[in-house]
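Appendix B. Extra example for self-study. Work through it before the problem class; the solution is given directly after the inputs so you can check yourself.
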Amino acid sequence: MPIYEYACSDCNSKFELLRSFGEADKEAACPQCHNHAERVVSVCASFSKNGSGESVPVAGAGSSCGSCSATSCSTCGL
Ligand SMILES: [Zn+2]
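Solution. Structure tokens for the complete assembly:
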């Protein structure tokens, strides 16, 4: 079962859960404050910060990862 990372916007804690693929995008309960935490996809999503601090997709970046567009991906191990 894959591990997914979640982040709580209320207490800023991050945690990982083993979930089936079908449950990956479902909300998770924060272990700290039990509020709703959202899945973090930044590890594998090839985003970068632009000048104004927004996250923007990296277009045309060299990709060596088979299952996502990141050049280095801890999720996929490439
Ligand atoms: Zn929390």
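Self-check: Strands lie at 3-8, 14-18, 28-29, 36-40, 47-49, 55-57. If your reasoning did not lead you there, revisit section 3.
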